[in-house]
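Lab notebook, bench 4. We co-purified these components, and the gel suggests they stay together. Before we commit to crystallization screens, I want a quick structural picture of the whole thing.
Request: model the full complex, all chains together.
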Amino acid sequence: MALIVDALSWALLIAGVVLGITGAIGTIRFPDFYTRVHASSVTDTLCALCIIAGLILQAGFTLVTVKLVFILLFLWYTSPVATHALVRAAHHMGLPPYLSNNASADAQKGKS
Amino acid sequence: MNIDFVGLYNYWVVIFLMMVGFYTVIAYDNLVKKVVGLNIFQTAVFMMYISASKVDGGSVPIYSESIELYSNPLPHVLILTAIVVGVAITALALALIIRIKEAYGTINEDDIIRMDLEEDARRDKL
Amino acid sequence: MMFGFSCLALLVVMGVALVRAFAGPSVYDRILAVNMFGTKTVLFLAVFGFFTGRPDFLDIALVYALINFIGVIAVLRFVESVTHTGTGAD
Amino acid sequence: MIESLINIILFTMLAATSLAVVRLHNLFAITMLFGVYSLLSAVIFVELDAVDVAFTEAAVGAGISTMLILSTLVITGHHEKNPKHGPWLPLVVVILTGAVLAWGTLDMPLFGSLDNPIHQHVAPRYIQDSPEEIGIPNMVTSVLASYRGYDTMGEVVVVFAALIGVLALIGINEKKCAKRQYSSDERPPRPVLQVMSKLLIPYIMLFALYVQFHGDFGPGGGFQAGVIFAAAIILYTLTFSLDDAFDLISPRVLRPLAAIGVLIYGGTGIVTMLLGGTFLNYSVLAGDPKSGQHYGILAIEFGVGLTVATVMMLIFYAFVSRGEKGKVE
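Here is the predicted assembly.
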């Protein structure tokens, strides 16, 4: 039983970490701000869920679990709101998205 | 000579941070940036104290029956105090900067010194 | 052991987020990177508590999440209030 | 092994961040990276077992400092002129000083060694006797609030003095702006943020109370709780407006409260003297010295929390009102 719980929590931790790294690669590799937001914010929530679920399995029924649940709820609550506010501000201030029919994008393609 | 890299790395980073802060204070003219530099310097000192308080294999200095060895709590208290005082000083410095901006129209140290010198020269003529 | 490796992997993610924060190019890219750095650090702190065997200090992770969120909102608010020239690039 | 690897990676990230802070020229970017720098140093404090310090750095250092620098930038502008003089002279000075200091570290006791001189004196006594003498598990709180109570009192006075300085220098402009009415087809600004902060703020305040009263058993205490409480109001100010925040908690109410916090601290000391003890020796507060210590620490932590919360709110009000409404007439 303990072995199953351990294995499950490890699997969850690995899944969370892999998701985190995927998001990180996305923020580095993607061409403009809006796509980077997509990469980081989409992985953020699931990454947090996986890692914290893995830790909860290790902690069992204690105060620690309650705190972990609070952290998860807080992250789930604030992270999308922050992303929303960020993209909204960027859009309002006129940060142009990177489009394929964009003149500058075509110029870049021509260069490479 | 035999240098223990892991044992001294923290102190080297502390010195690096101190020097970065020091450089920011003496090389840049913008007063807000100087305040940021001071804060970096200050954090370097905190790092120094807290690095010294850590004991290998020790644990957080909160009593628990299963723990034998604790890190040193005394530097923690000193630095906790220093952090709050540091913020108080930062607030005061920034308030002064706002007044300087309103009085001189700039927060560039060179411009402020030049304006002061011109003012002095004008007074001497009178 | 598992916790140790998770910690290291999360550190890598934090490092990558930092690279994006240094590189920019626009202010919003930096805010995004800082936000991502913050959430990953919260997770790092949670895992690190288990790694050291004393996971009772998760309050710090909570405060960290809170301050990180308020910081991002504050930066956005003040960037908005200073009328920016053009695209918000440096 | 993994521990020292984590240590080295974190310190390297800190050094890289500090370098990036210095190299940038947009002051907004600098402030953001400075916030990252503070939060990163909080992580390092956790990693070095200093949870209380990490708590304070995350809340006070990263939260409040960054907020204050940002609101200063609104007034002063955020573009830095290039310095007129070359970087060579300061660079030489800095490298020479750094080299001398680095040479000095070769004689330092190694990181983590138990025979470091600072572990030999005073500290062992705190570690061994404080859980017995004071009766609370968090040694940092025992030392902070009881053994070194004078020191902490001085610190609270410093924070209060900083408030007086800021109010004397820039003051709080309490003049109300004309209330903007929104017509029915126009949405108020930031609807998502407003709804979510309304939901979030009560829990932040509850968490502040938890931190305040749990400081004996875990990391936390008056300083951290005060800042978290102030952070709730700061969030409200950021998502609504300064006038709304003034309606919620007026500076007129906050100013006396800041002084009352200091008075509670000092008053506890006076009470212990009246009961026949020395200044801030809480053992005389109850029949049993341990419960006396408990009552004393609760009282002074409450004073600290009250002062810190109100001072942080007032300083924030002062900076933001200066930026939004201009000088006090």
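Chain D touches chain B through 99 residues (CB under 8 Å). Worth comparing against the SEC data before the next meeting. Chain D has twelve helices and no strands.
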